[in-house]
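FW: tagging you since you asked about this chain on Friday. Here's the raw sequence from the shared folder, copied in full. Didn't touch anything.
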Amino acid sequence: MDGPVGASEYLSRFIVNESHYRKKDLSVKPQAFFPNNKGETSVFRISGLSNEGVWDIARGIAQQLNKPLFGRADIRAFDITGQGLRVEPAPPPERHANIVGWPHEESDKAKRMSIGLKLAALCRPSFL
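HL: got it, structure written out here
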């Protein structure tokens, strides 16, 4: 996919860390959306793909990372931008994007948690 990420596009955050979801109710934790040390959260642009097509990408990414795949959290771009963040295309691989613009100061932990809680509540989780 080329070009900027549209507001109504669906994105998927692949869950490859056991601590990013709750087993008892299969819900996504806020930490699943937290940024890495570069201030980015990796997502994939999934609009126009079949459900199986999204899972194929997820399995491939988990394999590249040498991590188990537990599930995914699908969310609309406008839910992310509504929290003051941006979604920027970041290939390769194809369809990759990053959520950026996270508060990054040590004193901003509460803001990051608040944003993570909102994104976790707005996403549609799906587990294997």
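FW: The radius of gyration is 14 Å.
HL: agreed, and Residues 10-127 form one domain.
FW: great, closing this out.
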